[in-house]
Write a structure and sequence with these properties.
Elements lengths: L1 E4 L18 H18 L25 H15 L1 H5 L2 H24 L13 H19 L1 E2 L5 E2 L2 H21 L16 H10 L25 H20 L5 H20 L12 H22 L5 H6 L1 H8 L1 H15 L13 H12 L3 H25 L2 E4 L1
Antiparallel strand pairs: 1-4, 2-3
Helix pairs in contact: 1-2, 1-10, 1-12, 1-13, 1-15, 2-5, 2-8, 4-5, 5-8, 6-8, 8-10, 9-10, 12-15, 13-15, 14-15
Organism: Nitrospirillum iridis
GO molecular function, one term: acyltransferase activity
Protein name: Putative acyltransferase
Length: about 400
Amino acid sequence: MTIAAAAPSDARSLADVPPNRRLLSLDVLRGLAVAGMILVTSPGDWAKAYAPLKHAAWDGWTLADMVFPTFLLSVGLAISLSWPQLARDKRAATAKIARRTVSLIALGLVLNALPYFDLAHLRLPGILQRIGLCYALVTTLCLVTATTGVNHRPLLNRPALLAAIALLLLGYWALLVWVPVPGIGAGHLDPGGNLPSWIDRGVFTVAHLWPYGTDAAGAVVYDSEGLLSTLPATVNVLVGVLAGTALRAQPQGRGPRLLLLEAAVILMVAGLALDPVLVINKRIWTSSFALFSSGFSLGILVVLSALLDRGAAPLAHAATFPLRVLGGNAILAFSLSQILCAVGGVPFIPAAGGALTPQGWGDQLAGSVIADPYLASFTCALGILALVVLVLLPLHRRGLHIRL
């Protein structure tokens, strides 16, 4: 774990913490992704969550399905912006990549084990595990394909990265459609019959998969962060790397943003156009989903960059303050939210008829003052989000950014 300190600030108000050399739009994009994760996973009542904050049951997409891809794109942005330091010493970079990957996977496993540490049913895949694997794959690819520029300076090889995106999308599509699942056949994209789910059941065993990845009969058959589906998820990171190279080349220019906006539209249209052939599905991260979600996240980045990276207006700077707090310590914010979520599901609050979970107690409290049960449930999620921001606020005020 490392702690990066920003330049000291003379600011006096919370909303006036000045941006340092960090790309402001990146912190806000990460903050949006983390805020989205918290709002999706922390309702007062799971049955009373607004539809956009629920994942698609299988095929299709919702706003909630765009949250994780947005975080992955921000990982790619961070890789691109840190490239000069990363590529300076390949041996040191290899050690750093290995350490960070192992740290992310280990932290993901610990968070999955909460609150009871039932190792016999520990979920092995997970969000941080996927981030770690995608990070390792993309950074290694960047190092292996790097070209040499002026003064022997290593440069990101954009044609090679574009070729990798095409290979991953087409290769994964071919695997889904043409490789037969034993006893089932090829081309089945239902929860239990698709190739990624079959691989996960064989590699991790059912006892170590996501307990909510069930089929119509209620049997656990898939994991939404499975092994094979991590390959197309890597595309979202690679799109972030390419976007970062454009923004890094001309951080104040309009040209790169217009180019990225065009790319965002093309990616979304391509994903939608492929949907009738290869359905958009986050659970197994189909190629059409990778394209559409990359375009969606890229579009948000372009808007944020246009608003913030050329010198944010005071109102925009103040409005994005909570998101910058979250984005500056994104992994820590996510970890805190997962701890709160795990503790929130443990029944230990005395109540008539039995113990209440903190989640249930909070929903009852919100429901006592808010008549709409959906709004009351959403208010509980907002409360968790506010709590995480407040915990991270002292670190942000001091410009401290904790990294694995």
